[in-house]
Amino acid sequence: MRMKIYVLTAMILMQIGSLTAQINTDKWSVAAVNAYYDSINDVKKMGNINTAFDYLTTSKKFNGLVLISKRDKIFIHKAIGYANFPRKIKLTTNTMFELASVSKQFTATSIMILQERGLLNYSDSVTKFFPDFPYKGITIHHLLCHRSGMQQYYNFAPKYWKYKNLDLSNDSLMSMLATKKPALISSPNQKYEYNNTGYCVLAAIVEKISKKSFADFVEEEIFVKCGMKNTIVCTKLKTRPSAPVAVGHTANRRIRAHTWLSGTTGDKGVYSTAYDLYLWDKALREHKIIKSETLINAISGKSADQPMENNYGYGWHLGKNYWGTPLVYHGGLWNGFNTLFIRRLNDDVFIIVLSNITNWSFSRQSGSWLDIIDAI
Known about the structure:
Blueprint: H1 2-25, H2 30-59, E1 64-70, E2 73-80, E3 82-84, E4 89-90, E5 97-98, H3 104-116, H4 140-144, H5 153-160, H6 170-180, H7 197-210, H8 214-226, E6 232-233, E7 270-272, H9 274-285, H10 292-298, E8 311-312, E9 317-320, E10 326-334, E11 337-344, E12 349-355, H11 361-364, H12 366-374
Helix pairs in contact: 2-12, 3-7, 3-8, 6-7, 8-9
């Protein structure tokens, strides 16, 4: 034990001596001093993060991918558990997960790209692009911030979709809206109510304007430009048969059966990895995809009837942590996948959590993830 203490003390003295020599050589080298103490602080942060994360993995039985970073420094990037439990296929950091509603930020950003190019306005009515759309007065803005008043498609589609062996597509959903005209649950812009149907309509608008499939548009305009090599829209999964893809599971680790409702995109349907989402967040911060002012507008609350500390912008939820620090976040739940995306705005601490087990306790873990963020 004494020998270990002597060795550790000697190492610390050597580091201090090296630092002192550097300071003596350049008395203005404040950066060197800061870098030294920052490195010590990072070690402490890593200890705090690992302790909190180990608690989640052992006590909460976390299964999936996680990445935690601050600006360009990655603190944790791990794959834990199985991509397929019955077949015992282990996860890797390159395994793609269905992002569920975390996909909405790519849909919203696609609309923003078209808006920056002058190809649409947020105030445009949906009927400008789809004259047979049955609801007058619903604008792109209403769709983006969940104020359209439309029903959730999974509440009315089972009544009208007769081909349960085929996935419901966006085109089929748009046709269903035009012909069946399911009743609105509220007038346009009357109130905020989270809605998946609106984001399917937004994806259809992207296709109508760009004359490309939604999958091709987001790949060319977002994924490639961000360097996201392991991200794809579900409609193109079959074109990458060798890509490792996680399977959604029930709480007791059984594979969730595929549902015909999984065919729509815009509201969900993007498959990605934790690292690719880190690249996406980095590209947003560096304004490589959309302008700074466009992003600022997107992460501003759009519903005056909701508190500003619990609001929705364009594709992102807006909130605060325990200490009142602003957060941009989104969660997702679909077909056995649970996802969580959080960014702390004041210092760009970023966390992405991807799980492929349906576990309602996942949502109750959000406090633990915030604890991890506060440890940084």
